[in-house]
Each structure stands twice: as C-alpha cells, then as structure tokens.
Design a protein that fits this description.
The complex is a heterotrimer.
Chain A (H helix, E strand, L loop, with lengths): L23 H22 L6 H21 L7 H28 L5
Chain B lengths: L30 H36 L1 H8 L4 H26 L3 H31 L11 H4 L17 H5 L1 H35 L8 H25 L8
Helix pairs in contact in B: 1-7, 1-8, 2-7, 3-4, 3-8, 4-7, 7-8
Chain C lengths: L30 H5 L4 H29 L10 H20 L2 H14 L8 H24 L12 H5 L4 H28 L12 H33 L12 H35 L6 H14 L15 H29 L8 H24 L1 H7 L3 H31 L5 H28 L13 H31 L39 H12 L4
Helix pairs in contact in C: 2-3, 2-4, 2-5, 2-16, 4-7, 4-9, 4-14, 5-7, 7-8, 8-9, 8-10, 9-11, 9-12, 9-14, 10-11, 11-12, 12-14, 12-15, 14-15, 15-16
The chains are: A mainly alpha, B mainly alpha, C mainly alpha.
Amino acid sequence: MSSHPHDPANVTNPEHAEHRIVQPGTYIAVYIALLIFTGITVGAAFIDLHIFNPIIALAIACLKGVIVILFFMHVIFQSKLIKMTVGAGFFTFLILVAMTLTDYMSRSWGLW
Amino acid sequence: MDNTIVATHDIHAEEHHHVSLPQHRHHFETAEQQREAGTFGMWLFLLTEIMFFGGLFFAYLLYRNWYNPAFVAASNQLSIPLGTANTAILITSGFFMALGVWAAEVRKQGLLVLFLLLTTLFGFVFLGVKYVEYAEKFEKHHVPGASFDISEFVNPPINQKTGKPIEEPLSPDMARKTQVFFSLYFAMTGMHALHMIIGIFLLGWLTWRAQRGDFSSGYVAPIENFGLYWHFVDIVWIFLFPLLYLINRHPGS
Amino acid sequence: MSTTSSTIVNLPDQRTATLPKRNYLNAEDGLLSWLLTGDHKRIAMLYLISITFFFFIGGIFAGLIRLELLTPQPDLVASDTYNKLFSMHGIIMVFLFLVPSVPATIGNFVIPIMIGAKDLAFPKINLLSWYLYVVGGIMTLAALVLGGVDTGWTFTTPLSTHYLNTHVVTTGLAIFVAGFSSIFTGLNFIVTIHRMRAPGMTWFRMPLFVWSHYAASILMVLGTPVLAITLVLVVLERTIHIGVFDPSLGGDPLLFQHLFWFYSHPAVYIMILPGMGVISEIISTFSRKRVFGYTAVAFSSVAIAVFGFFVWEHHMFIMGVSNYSALVFSLLTMLVAVPSAIKVFNWAFTLQKGSITFETPMLYAFAFIGLFTIGGLTGVFLGSLGMDIHLTETYFIVAHFHYVMVGGMLMAFLGGVHFWWPKMTGRMYPESISKLSAVTSFIGFNLTFMPQFILGYLGMPRRYHAYPAEYQVLNVLSTAGATVLGIGFLMPLIYLTWSLKYGAIAGNNPWQATGLEWQIQSPPLTENFIETPIVDYEAYDYEWLAHKTEQEVTTVG
C-alpha cells in the first residue's frame, strides 16, 4: 500500500494506473451488449421458471451493472485502489443485507 | 503491503513536470495526482450513494418476501413497454455520456457539446416517461396515502376472452400490502428521479462550460467525474427495472 | 526558559520571542477571508468555534436534566419538557458535537501537516462540509426555538412518525444535512491520506492519529448514508404517510432500528477512534517513547472500523429480534472489545519505562485511558444477552456510554486541544490552571456518572423525570458531580480564550514532539511547508529529533 507521489514511473504504486482513453468502439460494443441484456431480462420474465425468475433477473442486472462499472466507468483501467474501493462499497451493502437477514430469517424459521 | 522506504532525495525535474493548466491546484504536486485524487474522491462519494440506495433496496427485499402476492399483483400494474423503453433510453443517455468523456479526452469541443446535449435530451425523455407513469398511478389511486384504493387488487377486472380475472384476486388484508409496494416504488424511483434531475442541472452547467471551451485543453476531470455519477444513476435503474417491473409476468401459469 | 527534569516543555526566550510575522491567521484579513477560505487550518478554527458553541448548548440541557433529577418529584419541568431536554441534549451532543469534534477540528488542522501536504485534497469540499454543518446546526436550533423535539436522539418509530407532534421533520432534515458534512469530511480525509502524502511518508510512517482518522473516515463514508436514507424515510412517513416503518400498513418498525443502528453503532466508533488517535500522540510525546506495538495499534483502528459494522443489533436485544441472531451479534460484540483492548494495553506498555511527564494533555490522556476502559468493559456487560435484558434502558447504559463518550471522547478532545493549542495559535495555555481543570473534570465526571452505574443496576430507568425516593442520594451525588464537571469544562473556555492574547509564545515545538506538524512554525504558514518535506524517519523517532535539534543549534540565528 505504500505509495510515493514521486515514484518516477509509478511502477510500485497500486494506487496509480496509467491513464487510458477508452475508444468509442468499446463504448458501442458495451452499449449493444446492454441493450441485448435488457431484451433478455424482459423475455426471461415472461417464462415461468419458478424460483429462477428473480435469480435470473438479478443475475442479468448484476452483469449489466458490472459491465457499466468496468467499461463506462473505466474501472477496468483504473488502479487497484479504485477497484478495491468499488468492491468495498458493494461489500458493505452485502453486510447490511446479510447481517440484517440473520434477524429476519431466524425470527420466523421456515417462512423465508 | 510494501513497507520499504523509497525516500527519493534526488528528485529530477522530469519526474514531476508541473503542467501549468489553469485548473491545476497549488496543493497537488502534479496534474495527474490531482486527477487521480478527483476520481478517487468521486468514487468514495458513489460509495455513499450505494449505501444510501442500499437501505431502500434492503427494505424492498424484506417486504417483497413478506408480502410476495401483493408485490406480484402490484408489480403487474406497471407498464413493461414503458419500463423497457425507459431502460433503453437511460442506457442510451449513459452511452452518450461515455462518448462525451471520450470527446473531451481527444479534445473535440464540438463533439463534446453534442454528446452532452444528447445525454441531457435522453435524460429528459426518461423523466418524461416517468411522468406519464406517475400520472397513471395518480389516476388509479395507487399512490400511497389516504386515497389509496385496493379494489383493483381485491376484484381484478375480468378478461373478456377467457372470462376469468386477469389477476389472482388478493384477500383485502394482503391487498392493503400493495401500498407497501407502491411506497417503495415511489421512494426508489423518486429518489432515482431526483438524482436524474440534479444530474441534468449539472449537465446544463457542464455543457455551458464545454461550449466555452473549458474542457478543450486536456482538463477533463469534471466531465469524467460527472460521467461516473451519471453511470451510477444508470446502474441504480438497471437494478430497479427488474426488481419493480418484472417480479412476475406470467399470471395464470 | 530552562528545561527541568519534571517537564519537557521547551519554550523560546519570552523576552525576545515573537509570533511568526506571516502565518495562516494573518495571511488575509476580514470576515470574508474566513468565510470563503479554502485553508484547512482556518476551516478547522471555524469548526472549533461552532462545535464549542453547540457543546455548551448541549451542556445547558444536560445541566437542566441533572437539576430536575435532584429531587424525586417532577418539580422543575413537566414530563414532556423533560423529554425535549434529553432529546435535544442527545441530538446536539451526538450529531453536532461528538461526531465532528476531533476529526473536523484537530484532524482538519493537523492531518495534512502530519503527512506533509499543503492542504486537504478538496479544500472547497472541506469548506462546503463546514457550511453543511452550520446549516444543520441552524436547523436544529430552529427546531429548538420553535418548541423542540422529544423523540430521543434515536428517532424511534412509530413514536417519531405517529405519536409525537413536535419538530421531528426539521430535526430529521437537520441531521440529514449535518450527516453530509460528516461524509464530506471523511471523504476528504481518505483521499488526502491516500494521495497527498509527502515523499517517504509511507503508510507505516504515518502518526497513529492519521491511522485512526483513516479508519473513522471509512465509517463516515459508508455508514452515514444509511442514516440519511433512514431519516428521509422517517420524514416521508411523517409527511405523506408511506408505510415503510408503519405496522398498521404492513411496515416493520424494527427495520427502522436495523437501519438506524447500522449507522449509529459505527457512529460510536466515528466518535471514539479519532480520540484514540489523539491519545496515541499524547502518550508517546509525554513518555518520550515510540508507541509500543505501532503496527498493532494502527491495524486495531482498522479492525475496530471493520468490526464496527457487525455489531449493531446489540442495541436491539430487547426489541423482539430473533434470539439466534441476537446470539450471533452478542458474540461479535465481544470481538470488537479485542482491538480496543489492544490499544489500551499498548498505551500501557508505551508508558512502561518511559520518561513520563505530567503536562495537561497527558493528564487528559490518563483520564481517557481509565474512563474509556471502564466504559468499554461495561459495554461488554451490556453486550452479553442476559445482562443486557436487566441493564438496558436503565441508568447503567447512560453511565456506560457517557464513560465512553464524555470520559473517553471529550477527554481526548480536550487533551488534543491543549496538545495542539500551541500549534494552532502559537501561544501556550496557562499550565497550572489547566492542570486544575483536567483534575476537576476527572473528579466531576466520576462523581456524575459512577453513581449512575449503581442507579442503573438498582433498576432506575432512563428517560424519566421522576423516580422513587430511595434513589435520591445517588442522584444528588450525580447532580453535584455534574456541577463540578460543568466548572471543569468552563475553565478551558475561559483560559484558552485568555491565552489567545496573553499566553506565552510557544515556539515551533514546545513538546519536543516528532510529528511533521511540530517541525514547522506555529502558527503555520497558509501553505504549511515552504518546500515539500521528504520523510526519512519513522513515526515517534525521538532520537531523530534529538539529532536534528543538535544540528539546528548551530544554525539558529
């Protein structure tokens, strides 16, 4: 984690990443992928898959979210610091969900 | 965790070439340090946004499990075509925002202004569609409050072809829980729309500055960081759409 | 002034010493230059003034509460007025004093200097954070003047949403705004600590004060927004009756508790962690030793921050949460005591065989260690399920969190203010009277809150303005103690103000401390450093300092 603003080439600094300009081609590909996934998620909702309906819907939403974060938001080209920061945010949200659910799920066993 | 000491006593001039952009602030050593600090700060702000919406998402998770039939019925009141169209519109808006960042990076002032305007335009279209949807809820008395009406969930309208109700009728007790769904619907989409409105104001300001030429000399941090915000708002909608609109779209099966 | 063996204070010759001609205080003149400043040091001073103001407002409420409890009968105020008194006391003290106390004042002032930066990463956001604080404060005052709020500081639903007709909305929004002030402070610190360190200032060369602020900042950034959305939902529930927390509409009041305490338990660590940082600095400086187990203390700060997110349900054991879940949270609560204990033991080992001197900051630090240990250990009592059912909602819990918040945090804050006062103002506070005030607050504090442990154990519930006559003796002791405590807190206000003009000139490094902030002039220049420092020594390296001083003796002219 040590970093030096004066580290000449920033080679040892995980908080630094070479700045990259993402080209429009990438954006177009991502855009098309997002539209396709939107189509899939709507289509999947009209098929009865029981328990898998919400799972698929959420999985596709997560996938779309990850694509946006990685490419539109350039996280894939960012430093480890930024990647960890993004991860930390979602991790804390999962703590909120999981730890609160320990109460709700065990308060009425079997009803969840 | 690297704890070695690299005290660079002999700093060469070329190591931190002080770029003399007017936007460069005195307390940063290099423009790059300033830029990375800005991005990092923006991401930390987005973390707070994740947790802010996180509370709402958890409330949704809880009540959807508690009152699943009510959530299914209430969700079917939302229009899938409008929701899908809005998803596509917002993704398009985000796409133009991403192109805007690129245009700023390659210093094409005209393109940048164009993309920012397109981003704004699609933002407005999204809000317009949202307005149509909200108006329908008001007409049908599906807005939580004193005038909330559950009759449509207790006695769903009859499908002319089959002669059966288009929806599984709910007991009055469960039907009242549809109000929880609509509370969350308005809280979540409302909070999202509020973020969009704030974003559109910022977009107007950025467009004005871009047109003035502020971002044509390699200083793109405001565009880039606003892009992060705008994409974050996209992501929230990417989750809201399936959670609110697509809970159960196969009635009768 | 000569240095004797009983003190390390090393002041310049008062006959010739002057304040530096150019410093951040006189760099610009006029009120506007303060209100529009981007200088972290000036913003710290703005914060110091405003939080002191709110501290004394909150203190007045505390005084009125103790006055009412002097007698068993409800003779001073009516019950709903009493509810307002303790609510406003809690809200002001928690959100407008404790949360911003050390970070926004001392942290704001010294963190950039400690890591060798010219300013925080985002000076304008820093100023914005102060303005948000002021707006939040004014809204709270408005609610107060218009008639107050009586929900308790916890805004418990459905009490706050359905049963009360006081200014819940105004206060809720005030806390919402003040919360963003705290978010922006935290955000600024994290970015600054990551991106603005001087060359050679590695993570493990940073003073522990910076580490503890880093940990607290993580909590501010990740916890506060959850409080914000919760308050928004409470306000919406009150104004347009959405049913998220309303059981009659299908909502769950416990969901409010979960979301509220998801922030408000980590908030306890937001309050105490910066205080722990202050103590690390003071203990090391006044025992002339590197903090024992530096790495352990640094990581225990981060561990407290992480564990802090896993324990909130212990505030809800008696509220009808699942027994199994309560068991898990009880266990996790015990775990969070471990990193706190690591810190206390490491401070104790730092003192061992050190050359200890008893300057005022050190007295406050001793008070902190003792009182925080009592507060922390009684927390373990409350974290265990069986004890909690007996003790919660009694005066035991009141005593417990006052031992942590007042005995811990406030002592650390006062210790820190005394410690960095010479750096902030360039002048020393009067030594003997400040020692007296430290001792006075320590005695007053224990007299106030020790009886409350006993009262709580005997079963006196909190938040009532009348009580059975057999509790009176202990309550009278407590009120008497509060008077002493009040005097102990008023004294610094007076003599610190006095010292602004008449205090002895402090010189650069009155304590002979090692931090970067002590190597520059006091008060510092607006840009802190004339040239970016290059750090080639570890934190708390007193030999390096002695060596440096030796070399300087020949060059000082």
